[in-house]
Amino acid sequence: MQILVLNGPNLNLLGKREPSVYGAKSFEDFYVELGEKFPAIQLNYLQSNLEGDLVTSIQNLANKFDGIVLNAGGYTHTSVAIRDAISATNIPVIEVHISNVTNRESFRHQSYITPVCAGLIMGFGLESYTLGVQALCQLIQNKQQ
User: Single Gene Ontology BP term (predicted)?
Assistant: First the structure.
C-alpha cells in the first residue's frame, strides 16, 4: 500500500511556528516516527508553500498512490483549485489538521476541501496524521474486499 502525505503552506515551519498551537517537533522528525508506526506501508511525503504545486501533485500523483493524507494548511479555507483537484481523483483523501480549527479564528471554520474528502481529522496534534493514515488504510482495505 502506498500513501502520500501532502502538506501545504507553512507546515515546513513546524517546531518553530507557534509551538503552543502546533507543537515543538518538526514534521521531518515526526515523519520518521510515522514511518516506524506503519512499516508495511510505503509512505511518501511532499510539502509546498505554493498552491499550484499542491494541485499539480494531487493531479500527477493520485494515480500512483492508494490514498492521500492532506493538510492543505491555509489553503483549506481558500482554495477551490485544490478542491477541484481532489474531486478529479479516484482515490480517498483524508483531510487532517494539527489543531482543532473550529476552536480558532472564524476564518478557519470553513473548509473548501472537506466536502470532497473521504474524512476529516483534526485537533490531535501531529497524531492527526497517524489517525489519517489509519483511516486511509481502513478505507482502502474495505474497498479491496
Answer: aromatic amino acid family biosynthetic process
CATH number at residue 53: 3.40.50.9100
Domain count across the chain: 1
Q: Give the three-state DSSP class for 6.
A: strand
Residue 77 known to bind ligand: yes
What's the pLDDT score for residue 77? Answer: 87
Query: Would you please indicate which residues are annotated as catalytic (active-site) residues?
Result: 22, 97
Structural domain of 61:
2-144
**pTM assigned to the model:** 0.90
Contact call for residues 67 and 100 (beta carbons, < 8 A): no
Residue that the C-alpha cell 473550529 belongs to: 102
pLDDT in tens, 73-103: 989 988 999 999 999 998 999 999 998 877 7
